[in-house]
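Structure ticket #2291
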Amino acid sequence: MVSCKTHLPKLFSIFLLMLLCFPGAMAAQYISFAQPDTLTQKDIYLYGFNTTSTDYELLGLYNTTSTAIEIPNGTDIMFVIKPQYSTPLDDPGTWLSATFAYVSSNLAALIIIMFLIGLILVRK
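Resolution: structure written out below.
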């Protein structure tokens, strides 16, 4: 007589292998972005694979302040993230506000750096 307890590990491992073989169903997916740095905005281009032309087509243009981007089901997608640079000569107002945002978020580090430079320059 064969005990059921001896076959449980084998049945469990076979069950796990069967679960790994089947792909999971994908529901509607949403992606949201956070702005990692305050100096540059970023444009996000969302491309989806077009089966008729076997090429990627533009599905939408978003920026990093978008609340959520809906990803279509059943298609391959590609994200392209492009930074928007602002120079002081092109748009001084935007550049100045971005600079103030950078200084206010990194104030402690800038004070320490200025203190260390002051120690080096004043030292006799």
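Closing remark: The mean pLDDT is 76.
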